[in-house]
Amino acid sequence: MLVALASGSALAGFVVSSLMFAAAHRYQGIAGVVATGLTGLVFVAFYFASGALWLAIAAHIIVDLNSLVIRPAVTGAWRPRRI
Question: pLDDT tens, 36-56?
Answer without folding.
Answer: 888 888 888 888 899 898 998
